[in-house]
Amino acid sequence: MSISSSHKPIFLALALMVILACNSLAPTTPQPAATLDALYTSAAETLSALSTQGAISLTMPPSPTGTLAIPTSSPIALQTFTAVPPLQPSAKCDAAAFITDVTYPDGSSVGMGVSFTKIWRIKNVGTCSWTTSYALVYLNGEKFGAQNSVPMPASVGPGQSIDIPVQLTAPNQSGRFKGYWRLRNASGVLFGVGNSGDESIYVDINVSGYNVLGYDFLEKYCEAEWKTESQTLPCPGTNGDNKGFVIVLNSPKMENGNTQSKGLVTHPQMVNNGLITGKYPALTIQSGDRFQASINCLYKANDCNMVFKLQYQIGNDAVQTLGQWNEIYEGASYSINVDLSALNGQKVKFILTVLANGSAHEDYALWIAPRIARVSAQPPTATFTPSHTPTVTATMTSTATSTPTATSTPPTSYP
Q: What is the pLDDT of residue 248?
């Protein structure tokens, strides 16, 4: 048992009282000196014992130093949160993605002044459908003689793609040319392609060389084999022949009343859904070649309703279709400009075909200037056909008079 320093005085007082009490029981007549000596001796012994014991049990702990003890904190377990992906942008109503250049990819070569059809394939990646009230509109750069806007060819739902063609004409000078276009919705708001919707689609061509006539389907129409489903036709045929016919007309009138120098007329057999085809001899196609023509119904052929087709055959392979166009009598003609680059180096037999939509009555199919247009490094050779030989008349008088007269007719040019 140990005694704390705070209880030590009390303990000593009690011990002294016990000693005094014990001494009070001694004989009543002790000697004063002996009594004091005994008392001092007892007290000294008691204090000695207490001091010995206190040396063991009352040892004070060392005084604390001035060092501040900072308790060590236990590590705090932080709650782990699952990473939240960033918010995705909300889907747009009108949004588009460029898929590919169907014709004339970037850097394609085109002859000076050549007409060509640029086709882009675009995908609707928005939430709203594109109606025919939407359009592709010219933005800036080289315009290539195009219209300011081209209506959407058909309605396009979300997730669907569409090919958008634009008729263009190359400049009459060499160089690299670009023209930029964007889409426009029914409210007149422009939007582009790409994630931000502010990128334009464009046409990018190299203009060089000259456009020359590679093959004239009109002038050589009797080199073709003309047939219906049931028989071979004579060339030239007879206008109005119920078996079908092919003829060339001088100064034919188009639906809009305009007159052309010549036109190739092909009329299918006079039966329901009749047809006529003309297969030409094999031609070797060169890079940059295109089939060009204008198609329409003959003037005042009011019941005209048919399908024009451009087909081809290589060797004895199956007949392939390059394009087809529905035509009715509505007062307009349409330009055909088909890129033949995929047939480069092939010997190709082209086939001009007309199919009647139902009755063949008045299906006078008029082909204006059907030809293969070809790019050449040399300008086309101009051939002049004089109407008569120039003459010079001289009159021998005092005043000599010389009156030369000459006339010439330039040939038909092919743009």
A: 97
Q: Which residue has the tokens 């008045």?
A: 362
Strands (E), 142-242: 149-151, 161-169, 175-184, 190-191, 201-216, 225-227
Cα(118)–Cα(1) distance, integer angstroms: 111
Burial class (CB in 10 A: 0-12, 13-18, 19+), 7: exposed
Q: E strand or H helix at 136, and its extent? A: strand 135-141
* 347-377 residue pLDDT tens: 999 999 999 999 999 999 999 999 999 877 6
Nearest-angstrom CA–CA distance, 236 and 248: 8
Distance CA 294, CA 7 (A): 129
Find tokens 């010389």 and name the residue.
Answer: 402
Q: Which residues pair with 207 in a beta bridge?
A: 110, 175
The backbone region for 47, taken as left when phi is positive above 0, alpha when psi lies in -120 to 50, beta otherwise, is alpha
As a whole number, mean pLDDT of residues 308-325 equals: 97
pLDDT of residue 57: 44
In whole angstroms, what is the distance from residue 179 CA to residue 400 CA?
61
Question: How far apart (Å, rounded) are the C-alpha atoms in residues 232 and 244?
Answer: 10
Per the CB < 8 A criterion, the answer to whether 105 and 206 are in contact is: no
3-state secondary structure of 63: coil
Residue 316: phi, psi to the nearest 5? -105, 20
Which helix (H) or strand (E) segment is 47 a member of? Answer: helix 32-57
Identity of residue 302: N
Beta bridge partners of 98: 122
CB neighbour list of residue 149: distance below 8 Å, 6 or more residues apart = 135, 136, 137, 138, 184
* Cα 137 from Cα 154, distance rounded (Å): 16
- Give the Cα separation of 15 and 110 in Å (integer): 131
Q: Which are the contacts of 96, defined by CB distance < 8 A and separation ≥ 6?
A: 122, 123, 124, 125, 126, 183, 191, 192, 193, 197
**pLDDT tens-place string over residues 167-197:** 999 987 889 999 999 999 999 999 999 999 9
What are the tokens at 146?
């195009």
Distance of alpha carbon 397 from alpha carbon 277, whole angstroms:
67
**Residue 224 CA: distances (Å) to CA of 221, 260, 338:** 6, 23, 20
User: Could you give the CA distance from residue 306 to residue 357 in angstroms, rounded to a whole number?
Assistant: 5
Is 303's pLDDT higher than 60?
yes
* pTM score over 0.85: no
